[in-house]
Amino acid sequence: MSNKILVFIDQKNGKANQASWEALGAGLMLAGKLGGGVTALALGSGSQQVAAEALHYGADEALYCDDATLADYRAEPYASLVSSLARGAEAVLFPTTTAGREVAAMAAVDLDTGVMPDVTALEVEGGQIVATRPVYAGKLIAKTVCSAKPVMITTRIRAFAKPTADASRSGSPRAVAPAVSEADITTRVTGYTGSAGGVSLNDAAVIVSGGRGVSNNPKLSPPAGLDEKQAEIWRAQQGFRLVGDLASVLGGAVGASRAAVDAGYIPYEHQVGQTGKVVSPDLYIAAGISGAIQHQAGMRTSKVIVAINKDPEAPIFKMARFGVVGDLYEILPALTEALRKRLGK
Amino acid sequence: MKIVVCVKQVPDSAAKMTVENGQVSWGEAPLVINPWDEYAVEAALVQKEAHGGDVIAVSLGGESAKEALKHALAMGCSEAVLISDPALAGADSQAVAKALAAAIRKIGDVDLVTFGRQAIDGDMGVTAAQTARILGWPALTLVSRISQLDSSSRTIQVERSVEDGRQVVQGKLPAVISVVKDFGEPRYPSFMGIRKASRANIPTWGLGDLGLAAPVSVVSWPKVENPPAREIKTEIIAGSSAQEIAEQLADKLLAEKVL
Ligand SMILES: Cc1cc2nc3c(=O)[nH]c(=O)nc-3n(C[C@H](O)[C@H](O)[C@H](O)COP(=O)(O)OP(=O)(O)OC[C@H]3O[C@@H](n4cnc5c(N)ncnc54)[C@H](O)[C@@H]3O)c2cc1C
Ligand SMILES: Nc1ncnc2c1ncn2[C@@H]1O[C@H](COP(=O)(O)O)[C@@H](O)[C@H]1O
């Protein structure tokens, strides 16, 4: 590869994870400062099509490998191919997805270089790439550098702008051969179950989250025959329905505090915070969430934060742009209605 | 079954972190076992209970990291080892992975190594994959369930929590896994466990004991800063009814241009 920047496009069956284009955008920015071009790489079934798309997004060259060994994502053969292509490059960029983080980590081992995962900003100072990495769940910021090349960088989802696609920018993606054969691979994918779907927290522009407070509506009377815990969960489901209604009017995702997850109100994949997902939407609405430091760690960089809480002393108000001291059971439906009218939904 | 679990000691998740004169401080907050690593300990113990054998907890860090190891022992691990060497100060993830891999080799005949998904200090989430790569073993990350582990056919099958669902993957043993919260709540240390852990003798291995030259760290973080202060002026929206409040709030949100 003669280009200085390689970008890994995370794709499945011909559909790119959108954060890949953000990584490509970051790669184009770096190439602009370091000189040289950008090569995009897509692997697996449908990768040819995605490689062609990478050219629309501004890659100077696009490579793909649709070999059977790469059909399902597996860390080993993916990392081997990335490291074989990355020799001589200045940097390899990945989106911070499961595959991106893991392939970056392993390719760094292959090339005896460094990995800087989940970066939120990149600069070039005196020819050296300086990455900004939130650490301690964003409580601190580390300016990070790597003295070896190529440096493996994964870009935090939503931290870099996606370039605009231009279908007139085209060319032909080039096929590359896999770096290892099936016999050298120690894992085999034997099944897959998709999740319910809906908007995922990681790339949502709007998130509406519920906390322990969603179960707190003494006026609701649960169906007969439920024990105390079941009744609490039933109440919480009514509360999360209100959270979900607002999220759906806004085209957003549903989040939760750990207390709500631990109490069994909602599955863990919705948890926002230090031991859940770190998110950075344009709008974050927290309903019935007190705003513990571990929760803040997961949402503090949201552009606009709205807090709805009965307790005027709740710490969440300190970080909110707008606050409503009140009962979420009254405020949420009214807000959903008001926004539905205004957004014409 | 011989299982190794890698645990790190980190400032408590409730710590208020600050930087003064370039020095990172967590104030009065305690140092604890990385919360994700408790799931890794749990996964290791569950396998030990099902298949017999030993679980050895390994941590790389300063002398204080013995406390994290004691927590793992109190949960039920059989042995613990601290890797500590002045030459490892400021080690990057790959240097840590090299030292962990060397310790795993030194322990010998290891079937399975469990990791947490990430350490809540550096938030890297790469050490499991890097250690596996160095060992040449399969890396099965983000495991929510071990559906099968067979020491005679030397295979493991796991479910991995990935972005859009669960991937079922089979690998050969020995293998490296990282464990996520879906695996199930970690047990509390038992009273007996705590007593045993408090008397445990935890050996310390230096680089010499591992037969390693000081690994070169290529990644460094010359500057750690407090995040830029956010100027937040909180505006409390009040009104005589929920409707009135909602109407005002909706207008303000539209004016912020975030919808
Ligand atoms: C190691 C560790 C990791 C953690 N990681 C996370 C994490 O990733 N994410 C996370 O969120 N937490 C995390 N926590 C937990 C965290 O410390 C808090 O316990 C948790 O965030 C509290 O959740 P909550 O705000 O929903 O509940 P609470 O603190 O109980 O707050 C409920 C709030 O709801 C309000 N309320 C009640 N009824 C109503 C109503 N009808 N209308 C409006 N408001 C109402 C109350 O005034 C209160 O403020 C972690 C803790 C530890 C120790
Ligand atoms: N110094 C260390 N000692 C032991 N285990 C570690 C150490 N650093 C990282 N780990 C393990 O690697 C996992 C991921 O860490 P990281 O890649 O630093 O986020 C942790 O959850 C631990 O299981």
Low-confidence stretches of chain A: none
Q: What small molecules accompany the polymer chains?
A: flavin-adenine dinucleotide, adenosine monophosphate
Helix/strand class of chain B: alpha/beta
Helical content band of chain A: 25-40%
Which overall shape of chain A is indicated by the principal axes computed on the Cα atoms? Answer: elongated
Please describe what this structure looks like.
- The complex is a heterodimer of chains A (345) and B (259).
- Helices cover 30% and strands 26% of the residues of chain A.
- Chain A is of the alpha/beta class and 345 residues long.
- Chain A folds into 2 domains: 5-184, Rossmann fold; 206-343, TPP-binding domain (Rossmann fold).
- In chain A, the strands form 4 sheets. In chain A, strands 7-11-6-1-4-5-12 form a 7-stranded parallel sheet, with helices on both faces. A 5-stranded parallel sheet of chain A has the order 15-14-16-17-18. Chain A has a 3-stranded antiparallel sheet with strand order 8-9-10.
- The radius of gyration of chain A is 23 Å and the shape is elongated.
- Chain B has a 9-stranded mixed sheet with strand order 11-10-9-12-8-1-6-7-13, sandwiched between helices.
- Chain B has helices at 35-51, 66-75, 93-107, 127-135, 191-199, 207-210, 242-255; strands spanning 2-6, 9-11, 18-20, 23-25, 31-33, 54-60, 79-83, 112-116, 139-150, 155-162, 165-172, 175-179, 204-205, 219-225, 235-236.
- Chain B is globular, with a radius of gyration of 22 Å.
- The interface between A and B is large, with 93 and 83 residues.
- The complex binds flavin-adenine dinucleotide and adenosine monophosphate.
- Residues 211-213, 216-217, 257-260, 271-276, 288-290, 292, 294-295, 298, 308-311, 314, 327-329 of chain A line the site of flavin-adenine dinucleotide.
